[in-house]
Amino acid sequence: MRIKAIAGRIINQLRHDKRTMALVLLAPIIVLTLVYLVFDAANDAYTISVIKVPKAVIQEIKSNDDYDMTVQRDSKAEAIDAVRSQKAIAAVSVNSDCSKVKIYVDGSNASDAKKVRGVIEQSVGQVVKDDAKAAMEDVKDEMAANPMAPKVDLDYVEPDVTTDYIYGQEDGSFFDDYGAPLIGIIIFFFVFLIAGINFLNERKDGTLERILSTPTKRGEIISGYVLGFGSLAIMQTIIVSLFVVYVLGMIMHGNILLVLLVNLLTALCALTLGMLMSTLASSEFQMIQFIPVIILPQVFLCGLFKLTGIWDVLGHCVPLYYTTDALTDVMVRGCGIDDIWLDLIVIGGCALLFMAMNAAFLKRQRSV
Fold first, then answer.
1. Strand pairing partners for 100?
2. Number of CB atoms found within 10 A of residue 92's CB
3. Does the CA dihedral 240-244-248-249 come out positive or negative?
């Protein structure tokens, strides 16, 4: 009977907590659906810029069975610029007899670079084999027509392939591919959770209510909390960033100060968003329940995975997209502030927006 009474009390509590019931029952379905749709729409389409390439090789590249390859003809300068600006994943030059192949590739994602290199090398190799087979048939026909003709030996020669990595490196690891975005994601996640729970405790303990009863302005209250919680976020950001680069040895082609700037703005954005979401929660458990609703969708849409169509458009609507874009540009591609200024403005703008929304909630709470 005691077990039944305890179980019944818990069930009644959960039954009356509609927010918890909705998150527990619906959140897993939403997340799994999002995972299915995002991965089902994964991008297997690549653009290759060709400089001087025989038509037969181009046809082989286009007709491969594994990936959707778009081929565009450019000059050498245009082709390399297309790779640098991420308009093409690779540029390729092949001489007339396919004996020499030069590939310029964007290796910021080692997996994608390996796939594209494989298609190019396989396509050139297939053309060389077809040409050798056709030449052998011609020799056989000539020998049949003239048995006294001297015998000719035809050897298959493997194409000489050289590759220049515009970004990244040939022996890049899985961590190098995803490490830069993951730094921002991890910082965003922990700062969001810590700030949200701590601000929730300020409300539950009555501390915030007592501050609101004083003449302190709402902007001063929010700024004070941001500075207070932000001190911990700053320490975490600096430690994580330096640890990943200098201890784990992650690839780093840009300025470490820019990495710290991006991560600090990301932490500020997560901090203000966590404070905002805490106003909708009544317990730490409910705060944690916001993770599958607020954090996980951003992880899938932020650019960690290659997306196309509507998913790519939706990705531009989440703050983490601009964090991962900026970190990848700086750490993998060696870009400067001139290339990531828009990302910085968007991340900082989101933080200011969340601060303004926090102030609006405080106004409503003060008037109650």
1. 160
2. 29
3. negative
CA-to-CA distance for 105 and 43, rounded, in angstroms?
18
pTM above 0.85, yes or no: no
Q: Are residues 281 and 229 in the same domain?
A: yes
Given a contact cutoff of 8 angstroms between Cβ atoms, the answer to whether 127 and 57 are in contact is: yes
Question: Which structural domain, as residue segments, surrounds residue 218?
Answer: 173-367
Residues 87 and 192 in one domain: no
Hey, is 72 helix, strand or coil? strand
Q: How many angstroms separate the most distant Cα atoms in the chain?
A: 111
Q: What is the pLDDT of residues 214-263, one digit of tens each?
A: 777 777 777 887 888 778 778 888 888 888 888 887 778 888 899 999 99
- β-pairing, 90-94 vs 68-73, is unpaired
- Asked which of 168, 200, 216 is the last residue of a domain, the reply is 168
Residues 334 and 344 sit within 8 Å (Cβ to Cβ):
no
- Rounded Cα gap, residues 275 and 221, in angstroms: 12
Task: Give the contacts of 36 (CB within 8 A, at least 6 positions apart).
Answer: none
Q: Are residues 178 and 154 in the same domain?
A: no
> Is 348 part of a structural domain of the chain?
yes
